[in-house]
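protein under study:
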Amino acid sequence: MFKYNDGGREYAGYKGGTGDCVCRAISIATEQTYQTVYDDLNNLIKSKRKTKKAKRSDSRTGVHRKFYEEYLKSLGWKWKATMEIGSGCKVHLKADELPQGRIIVRVTKHLTTMINGVIQDTYNPSRDGERCVYGYYYK
């Protein structure tokens, strides 16, 4: 199942297409405002500006995994891997293969949120239930 949810992006005054899936997914899952997550991530990235990964990360255009993992960990979220290198796809982006509750799911080049088996995003990234899941964050 899928439900349109921009995580409060439009309410915060942002328009147009962009690569802000990290900010949207975290704001939906943690129930924080989009602007709070946006600012928190950018402040974390700015504090690490000397690294190459930080220079390419931004809440609006894409946040490197290193930074959003640090941010989620600071909020008490944990990572559960569902795939290992060379293991092939074992878990797909669908309700019966993922746990209930609020989770942030990592798939290829995208983060999305599931709440009790319902994908919450600006589009349905499931590829009809065939999209492989690398893992998910849970609290």
Remarks:
- The chain has a mean pLDDT of 93.
- The chain has one domain: 2-10+18-138.
